[in-house]
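Entry 14. Structure prediction run on the chain below.
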Amino acid sequence: MLTDQHIHSEIFTYFTKHAPVLFFVLSEQGVISDTNDYADHIVGYPMTGKIFQEIIVDFTGNFDLSALIIEPSREQLINIGTASRLPQSYYFIFKKLTDCILAFGRQDIEEIGSMRKEILSLNHELNNFMRELHKKNAILNQVNEDLQAANQKIEELARTDSLTQLANRRYFDERIREMAPLSIRKFQPLSVVMTDIDKFKQVNDTFGHFMGDRVLVGYADLMKKHTRAEDIVARYGGEEFIILLQQTDASHAYLVAERVRKALTEVNLLNNAYVVTASFGISQLKTGESVETFINRADIALYRAKQSGRNRSILAE
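Output returned:
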């Protein structure tokens, strides 16, 4: 059987270590000499040696310890400063012993209920807010994706020839000016092939502009088919095209031109007996020369091919 002393010991242990009530041992001057664990937890720091009045939030300025111990059974509502810096209300009773004062504080049940309702209301508002925020984020993400897709489309349109879907001249000029100094720096060959459809005006005049556009598109597809993915095939103007060949010297660029030239004569772009042909001029970038000179040498070679009877490839000097 448990003795009274053992029961008192268990009650005291629970009260000082686990009970959710505030417990202080005070001197007659209000100096704290002992507390339970819950009090230290609520206030946020050890209070031994502190004056009790320093830990309370005395809104009225009327706190008087000596007056409170006269009626030990009367509860006094006192606001305690907490670790969260938000005061909490507790009902205190103060009991005077021979050499100390015992202070017991229980939390205001009404305040607990009010806080619980407020927390539930705040949680409800927070859930609604998060739900709306999630919706808005989803909308914003979709808008950003649409904007990125639109910007990508605009960028593609800005660098693409609308008829042939090849690179346009502006994009080609940007890339060749990037790649020319890089190829010189890395000692890698860089070549261009300029090509022009032979007697293209005759095609337009004889078969109409619709068929002329069909020839341009067909020739563009043919060049893409016979070049590498890393090569840049561009419409340079009208019926004139240019191919930029990375890590390719003039002799190998010539072979590319010849492969395209022969393939063109073997396809029937007009669906009739007319054979479409093209002429080619090839140049390889020289150390120290400008991009303009590099392209112009290919253009001169193309002119020579035209003057020599068309449907042929000529290397630049």
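The CA atoms of residues 159 and 171 lie 5 Å apart.
Filed with the rest of this week's runs.
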